[in-house]
Structure to design on (152 residues):
């Protein structure tokens, strides 16, 4: 591959990701909004719940490949903010079901819309020729990543 090392590629990807985060924050400020105060892992938990509908704590921990104690702390935090609800099973009091609240679902929808706005803002930074090259490169990158994930 034309003398480019994996380390150089990794460095470029890290720099692009950092620039993307900076551009997203600038776009959010320009729009008068800052991203919601969720950690990435909390966001992923909310998305997993939206996808699954309802899960027990142990199913949830297994699905996100994290210890139940860690997931339980994160769920406690989300529940205090009204984003998820916890309910004990009527058949087995040891079992706790977790589901997304309407507030949690709305938050995810709002975050996704804000992200789309930021992406549109960032896309506007490129001229037409750059946009064509970027679209092609991003499609190829996505294909490689998805292919790698399917083999993992």
């Amino acid at each position: 591959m034309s003398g480019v090392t994996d380390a150089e590629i990794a460095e470029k990807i890290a720099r692009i990701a950092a620039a993307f985060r900076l551009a997203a924050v600038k776009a959010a400020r320009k729009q008068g909004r800052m991203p919601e105060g969720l950690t990435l892992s909390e966001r992923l938990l909310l998305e997993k719940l939206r996808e699954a509908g309802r899960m027990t704590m142990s199913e949830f921990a297994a699905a996100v490949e994290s210890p139940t104690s860690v997931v339980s702390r994160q769920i406690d935090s989300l529940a205090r903010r009204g984003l998820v609800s916890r309910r004990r099973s009527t058949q087995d009091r040891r079992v706790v079901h977790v589901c997304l609240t309407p507030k949690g679902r709305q938050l995810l929808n709002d975050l996704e819309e804000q992200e789309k706005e930021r992406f549109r803002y960032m896309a506007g930074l490129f001229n037409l020729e750059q946009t064509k090259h970027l679209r092609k490169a991003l499609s190829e990158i996505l294909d490689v990543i998805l292919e790698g994930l399917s083999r993992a």
Q: What stands out?
A: The chain has a mean pLDDT of 82.
